[in-house]
Amino acid sequence: MDLTDSDALTHAIKRFGEHTGTINHLHFNPSAFTDKDALELNADELLADVRLGVASLVTAVQAARPFMPAGARVTATGNATADKPWKRAASLGVQKAALRNLVTALDMRLAEDGIRACTVTVAGTIRTGTAFDPSLIADAIYAASQSESEFWEPEIRFDGRN
């Protein structure tokens, strides 16, 4: 599925919500890797990457919201490139910084309804058998989603030790 096709994404999420009745956890993990530095990247490429890696979250949450009860969670996978850009992937850092900002804004709005949102920022290179093993990251995302609202943080940094 093309996550940048808002109509198709909305339809898929609504269909899932209608089938299950509720959506208790929406996890967002897409990003675009364009192997270009900031001067090689053109505006259209940057905007296309942001459309996939950030804007499609808005569509997903809007579609899921009618099926999300109080206590539901939205999580997103962040990346250290939000704070420390990678020269050969300028758009990735833009996506991850914008994603963190958007998730924080969503959390402020959704908290009014008892729903919370957070970004789990992976501060290392994902590689099986290391402290950044995908299964450990998945566990960190799950643990973040289980936090009580009174202790909620809109960003959790996963540094391979937590």
Structure, described:
This protein has a single domain, classed as Rossmann fold. Strands 1-2-3-4 form a four-stranded parallel sheet, sandwiched between helices. The longest helix has 22 residues. Helix 1 runs parallel beside helix 2. With 162 residues, it is an alpha/beta fold. 43% of the residues lie in helices and 14% in strands. It contains four helices and four strands, in the order H-E-H-E-H-E-H-E.
Short description:
With 162 residues, this protein is an alpha/beta fold. The chain has helices spanning 6-20, 43-64, 90-110, 134-145, and strands at 25-28, 73-79, 116-122, 155-158.
DSSP, total strands: 4
- Specify the CATH homologous superfamily: NAD(P)-binding Rossmann-like Domain
Describe the largest sheet: 4 strands, parallel
* End-to-end separation: 33 Å
Choose one word for the global shape.
Answer: globular
Taking pLDDT < 50 over at least 5 consecutive residues as the criterion, the unreliable ranges are none
Tally of distinct domains: 1
CATH architecture, by name, is: 3-Layer(aba) Sandwich
CATH class: Alpha Beta
Number of helices: 4
Strand order of the largest sheet: 1-2-3-4
Layout of helices and strands:
Elements: H1 6-20, E1 25-28, H2 43-64, E2 73-79, H3 90-110, E3 116-122, H4 134-145, E4 155-158
Parallel strand pairs: 1-2, 2-3, 3-4
Helix pairs in contact: 1-2, 2-3
